[in-house]
TrEMBL record:
It comes from Salinithrix halophila. It comes from the Bacteria. Pfam families: Gin. This is Sigma factor G inhibitor Gin. InterPro entries: Sigma-G_inhibitor_Gin.
């Protein structure tokens, strides 16, 4: 978990936060992390979170194909 005094923008909610996690060099704030792991797959928000997280791997994909 990232704990720093620097504010980092969350890739899900776009807010600047201090606490959260980094996945493949992208930051997810603690509030979004908790909401993601507690969202049921039948919830409308689930597809939103999948899309946001998919963007992490899409950004990383070209480098990994080389």
């Amino acid at each position: 978990m990232q704990n720093t005094t620097d504010q980092i923008r969350c890739i899900v909610c776009r807010r600047e936060c201090e606490n959260g996690i980094t996945v493949l060099e992208e930051f997810i704030c603690r509030d979004c992390e908790v909401e993601i792991v507690n969202t049921d797959v039948t919830d409308k928000k689930y597809a939103h979170f999948v899309g946001k997280l998919r963007n992490i791997w899409i950004q990383e994909a070209p480098d990994q194909l080389i």
